[in-house]
Prior knowledge:
Blueprint: H1 2-46, H2 52-75, E1 79-84, E2 97-101, H3 107-117, H4 119-135, H5 139-145, H6 160-168, H7 171-178, H8 181-184, H9 187-200, H10 207-234, H11 246-282
Helix pairs in contact: 1-10, 1-11, 2-3, 2-4, 2-9, 3-10, 4-9, 4-11, 5-7, 6-11, 9-11
Amino acid sequence: MNWIINILWDTTVATFDIVVVCFGGLFLLGLLLYLLARYTRNLFAKTLGIRAELFISAWIGTPVHELGHAFFCVIFGHRITKIRMFDPNAGDGSLGSVEHSYNPVNFYQRAGSFFIGAGPIIFGSLVILILMYLLLPNSYSALQQFKADSSFLNLDGIGVVQYFGMISSGFSSVLRLLFSAENMGNWQFWVFLYLVMAIASHMELSPADLKGMMSGFMVILLLIFLVSLIYAIFIPGTVSFLYATVPLFNFLNQLLFMALLFSLINFILFFLIVSIPSLIIKGSIVNPFTR
Length: 291
């Protein structure tokens, strides 16, 4: 009985460890991106009008968002039944959409629902990476800062605090490289900054996206538990091969941190632009936290 309890405990701990370090950042950063996008839209609605956002950021941000959904539909074998890359005149008020169907008894396709829902933040991060490579002269140096440290792959697994410490380590170095005097004196940097702010402000996960992710996440959670159980029973004291995916998620989370930073810059800049005239004319600032 003690053996069974120990096995179940080790399996549960390993499952929790892997889930947090691999998917915790996606949920947390996706939520923060959603909140920033919502507050930025509130500013548009209260000042320039919601349609102004279409010409400032949505024209590029929305197609990248929808391509993120469509990309993972193709990867996981979902059939795309309808796609609207950018349709601001849609009757439901959305700017775009991807409708798809799949076989619910196919575990691969069901697991894919998670990545399809998270597609905008994953695909958007890859687009930012490509833009960095194409437009920034010192992009290679910045990309070097994003390399994941694999030294944590030991028999003790990964500590959550240690993991998020790794994500944040070197992040200040990346910021110094991005906002260097060399970059800021280059027109390509300003093109990069505008495009990334526009894309990042539309990378958020909507409630509908999160709902679609959950069925896939439950399948992934079950698979992680079963793999961890097999390791705990047959090869105890060894590290699951699932830990080998952590550097990839570490890299992705660092890109998401950068996207979050640019989304925050976008929000602060627009808040200052609209609030200073409002303060002078009306004697009050615009509240972005209410509709």
